[in-house]
């Protein structure tokens, strides 16, 4: 008796309940989940260590993080309305001039998947973050986009 293996292809798009942003649809249709994640949830020289948030005044939140940029490990903080604004300010303070252009977020298998389109010096890329906490999924997506653009 011969063992059989499945060679059927399942596109990454099958994981999402709603359509992805237009710029991501083609790769989601032509790549499997593993390859799609490898292309969009990119690790690199910018890495997130710790992340915390504490309510501040006037509907603001004090965010603190440990970020690594290359060999440097930095404790950074920012006061902002939300985690993406804080992450943007933190990255700017470390010399990564990043701007958010687009955002897409949805639930997949109990986790939050966030896609953030970012711009650095006129170049754009989408990053992807997956986490149980929507804030961490967004910050992860920003860092992935920054790593794709560096």
TrEMBL record:
One of its GO terms (biological process) is L-leucine biosynthetic process. Residues 54-150 form the 2-isopropylmalate synthase LeuA allosteric (dimerisation) domain. InterPro entries: 2-isopropylmalate_synth_dimer (IPR013709), LeuA_allosteric_dom_sf (IPR036230). One of its GO terms (molecular function) is 2-isopropylmalate synthase activity. Keywords: Transferase. This is 2-isopropylmalate synthase LeuA allosteric (dimerisation) domain-containing protein. The lineage of its organism: Bacteria, Bacillati, Actinomycetota, Actinomycetes, Mycobacteriales.
């Amino acid at each position: 008796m011969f063992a059989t293996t499945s060679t059927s292809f399942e596109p990454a798009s099958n994981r999402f309940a709603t359509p992805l942003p237009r710029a991501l649809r083609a790769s989601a249709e032509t790549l499997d989940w593993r390859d799609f994640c490898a292309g969009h949830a990119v690790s690199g020289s910018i890495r997130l260590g710790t992340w915390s948030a504490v309510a501040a005044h006037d509907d603001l939140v004090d965010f603190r993080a440990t970020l690594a940029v290359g060999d440097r490990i930095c404790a950074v903080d920012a006061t902002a309305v939300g985690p993406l604004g804080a992450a943007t300010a933190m990255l700017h303070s470390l010399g990564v001039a990043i701007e958010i252009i687009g955002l897409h977020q949805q639930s997949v298998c109990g986790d939050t998947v966030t896609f953030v389109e970012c711009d650095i010096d006129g170049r754009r890329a989408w990053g992807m973050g997956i986490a149980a906490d929507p804030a961490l999924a967004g910050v992860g997506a920003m860092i992935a986009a920054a790593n794709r653009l560096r």
